[in-house]
Design goal:
The chain is an alpha/beta fold. It has one domain (7-243): Alpha-Beta Complex (Spore Coat Polysaccharide Biosynthesis Protein SpsA, Chain A), CATH 3.90.550. Helix content is 37%, strand content 13%. The chain contains eight helices and seven strands; from the N terminus they run βαβαβαβαβαβααβα. The chain has helices at residues 17-25, 45-51, 65-78, 98-106, 130-147, 163-168, 180-190, 213-234; strands spanning 7-13, 33-38, 55-58, 83-86, 112-116, 159-162, 195-199. The protein has a seven-stranded mixed β-sheet with strand order 3-2-1-4-6-5-7, with helices on both faces. α1 packs parallel to α2, α5 packs parallel to α8 (213-234) and α7 packs parallel to α8. The radius of gyration is 17 Å and the shape is globular. The two termini are 30 Å apart.
């Protein structure tokens, strides 16, 4: 708990058995709620999660990264979280930064906080492939220009959110794929939420999840589409559901907890 606000860490997981224990071990005492959503893994991720004392929810099929996040946020809000921090359980990002990120949201200054791999020049040192670094920088410059905000990175998977932001954004209109992350930032910009950043080291290794070149290109194209939709919606040219205040928002009671009819 920070400033009287309950902090939840959510972990969207798929085949994270090898790195989950290290991730959970670095979660500090400020974390009141620990939730993992297993997207129908082929390994023992869910069983290990339960043994570590983490509230564990299991999808009955592999729905995708974006859908996994929807479940994560629903369950965290239903559990009474005021601040929700998404941590990938593949140990690519250090959970030791959770208190700092949650504190930035708890201060009331920021509604969303991103852990940037670019600030501090840690991305390439941490093993980020050069082509991903170049894609990252180009897409970030493009979006800064058209979204009207200035960030060092839009593509990190380590983020913190206020309860109000998660309840306001029409997250159910977003993609089930990896571009969900990017759509959230664009939505936050559209709805006027304040976004902060913190420098974060990163580690690329065999067990860490990472999309391949083909999926990276697909993601990049979807980022361009998201940006074009943002501009078209703001200029009242084409209405986009992901940027419409009447779009579908999170609801509680989505998937059942592991071991209770799943």
């Amino acid at each position: 708990m920070i400033n009287g606000k309950r902090v939840a860490v959510v972990m969207p997981a798929y085949n994270a058995e090898k790195t989950l224990a290290k991730t959970v071990a670095e979660l500090t005492d400020v974390v009141d709620i620990k939730i993992l959503v297993d997207d129908s893994s082929n390994d023992g991720t869910a069983q290990l999660s339960k043994s570590l004392g983490v509230q564990t929810f299991i999808h009955d099929a592999n729905y995708g990264y974006g859908r996994n996040q929807q479940t994560c946020y629903r369950e965290a809000l239903a559990a009474g979280a005021d601040i929700v921090v998404m941590v990938h359980p593949d140990y690519q990002y250090t959970p030791l930064l959770v208190p700092a990120m949650a504190g930035m949201v708890a201060s009331g200054i920021y509604d969303m906080v991103l852990a940037s791999r670019i600030l501090g020049a840690g991305a390439l040192k941490g093993g980020m492939p050069l082509y991903k670094y170049v894609f990252n920088r180009c897409l970030t410059a493009f979006q800064n220009l058209f979204l009207g905000i200035k960030l060092s990175e839009y593509h990190t998977g380590f983020r913190a959110f206020s309860r109000n932001l998660l309840l306001t954004l029409p997250l159910l209109e977003n993609s089930d794929d990896f571009v969900f992350d990017n759509q959230m930032i664009a939505q936050a910009a559209m709805f006027g939420f304040k976004i902060g950043e913190i420098s974060c080291p990163t580690k690329y290794f065999e067990e860490a999840s990472s999309i391949n070149f083909k999926r990276s290109v697909k993601y990049g194209l979807e980022v361009l589409v998201t940006t074009a939709s943002f501009v078209a919606h703001r200029l009242h040219i084409i209405r986009s559901p992901i940027f419409d205040a009447s779009g579908r928002k999170l609801q509680f009671q989505y998937y059942s907890e592991a071991g209770q009819g799943v």
